[in-house]
Amino acid sequence: TQSTRPQRLLGAVQKNATRGDPRSVVKAIDHFCRNQEWAMNVGDEKGCILDSVVSEVNPATVLELGTYCGYSTVRIASLLPPHAKLITLEFNPDFAAIARQVIAWAGLEHKVQLVEGASGDWIPKMKEQFGVETFDLVFLDHWKDRYLPDTHLMEECGLLRKGSVLLADNVICPGTPDYLEFVRSSPRYKSQYFKSHLEYTKVEDGLEKSVFLG
Ligand SMILES: C[C@H](C[C@H]1O[C@@H](n2cnc3c(N)ncnc32)[C@H](O)[C@@H]1O)NC(=O)c1cc(-c2ccc(F)cc2)cc(O)c1O
Ligand SMILES: [Mg+2]
Q1: pTM exceeds 0.80 for this model
Q2: From the candidates 44, 141, 150, 205, which is the catalytic residue?
Q3: Which of 21, 139, 150, 147 is nearest to 72 (CA)?
């Protein structure tokens, strides 16, 4: 039977990356997406901005919405201090299965909890299920029309504290206009746009970093 693109991406990781070496996993995926098949990873250019925000925040608790194949999961987890935890939500079981193997190849399974399911169902259960108080960093990379409702949901569930950082991918392409309008106009957020390009292309895209002011 035909393989899927995520299966071919995993194959490229297993063929070209070194087990236990997160940077080689990231490099192998970027090479595959630039030279073989485009895929919707945050990519190398926006990935560098992601890395700098993760390093600046130095988070103990991270929530990622939209794992896909685990590319940004590996980038983030490889920068976390010891004992820090990353919870990543993915509702497509086929993508989740590939992501688990990519994360394992990078040797980062002990830092990552991949939860299969929809953000809307799981955000209200974070405290009771995973013993999370608040998130220091949230990376939003799931359905673009879920960014705003899930941000309101995280606030309502008390998962954000003064200083929590929201970092949102694709605010230009495919675009998240309602989310962007909200975080840029709300007095409860301090927002900053990092101009970049859609992964592996010359199309404009960017990341929006928004600090919750409490
Ligand atoms: C949405 C996807 C990423 C993943 O998110 C999971 N997901 C969804 N909603 C939920 C939820 N509510 N809870 C948990 N997981 C959830 C899904 O299954 C995908 O695996 N990302 C994109 O669609 C995406 C698309 C593009 C893109 C840009 C230009 C084009 F011409 C075509 C595509 C670029 C990007 O950088 C993306 O990130
Ligand atoms: Mg994205």
Answers
A1: yes
A2: 141
A3: 139
